[in-house]
Amino acid sequence: MVAADELFKVPKQKKQVSLWVHPDGKVIGSLFLLEQSALHAGPEEPIEALNHDSPFVVISMEDPSELRFYNRSSVIRVEYPNKGVVTNGSVTQLTCQVHLMDGSMIDGQIIEILPQSHSRTFDYLNQDKERFIKIYTDTDEICLINKSYINYVTTVDE
User: Fold this and answer.
1) How far are the Cα atoms of 51, 143, 148, 157 from residue 96, in angstroms, in the given order?
2) CA distances (Å), 35 to each of 43, 79, 143, in order?
3) Among 47, 78, 109, where does a domain finish?
4) How many structural domains compose the chain?
5) Could you tell me if 93 and 52 lie in one domain?
6) Which band of pLDDT confidence, cut at 50, 70 and 90, is reported for residue 118?
7) pLDDT tens for each residue of 61-99
């Protein structure tokens, strides 16, 4: 027999990430991701978890061993290793440099399926519902950046 509290648990898996949080700085922890995404086949991706409407995100810490509930507005960026991205003809690739309010710069590419009529860097940055954008960095990491901490973005012609 399954315990009553087990009936209400949603199956999730942990994904270790590096977070830059204002004002604490760099924090290492794990996001809890759904085993099945509501948007596509396969598990939820970190950007989906960060772009939820709820104001807080749960981070599992190892040292100290605790759960922290971070306000999404205070998360500047999240990074984790890129396991490889599969591109096809319908994917738009935009090379850019993101300048953050703390003076840091992130070089990389936006790699997304974008409609032909809205396939510019400007269009991607101005998506209404997305709080975080996804950049594939030159250091082979994925960087999720909170748009409210971006000072400006420049495009790089290839």
Assistant:
1) 21, 13, 17, 8
2) 5, 20, 21
3) 78
4) 2
5) no
6) confident
7) 988 899 999 999 999 999 999 987 666 668 888 999 999
**Does 45 lie in the same domain as 28?**
yes
User: What CA–CA distance (Å, rounded) separates 127 from 25?
Assistant: 27
Question: Which is nearest to 142 in space by CA: 51, 100, 80, 91?
Answer: 80
How far apart CA 99 and CA 105 sit, in angstroms, is: 5
Please report, for residues 63, 72, 94, 147, the alpha-carbon distance to residue 109 in angstroms, rounded to integers and kept in the order given: 33, 23, 5, 16
Q: What is the dihedral of CA 4, 8, 58, 80, to 10 degrees?
A: 120
- What is the 3-state composition of the chain as percent helix, strand, coil, each rounded to the nearest 5? 15, 45, 40
Quote the tokens at residue 151: 């000072």
d(CA 148, CA 51): 13
70 in any annotated domain: yes
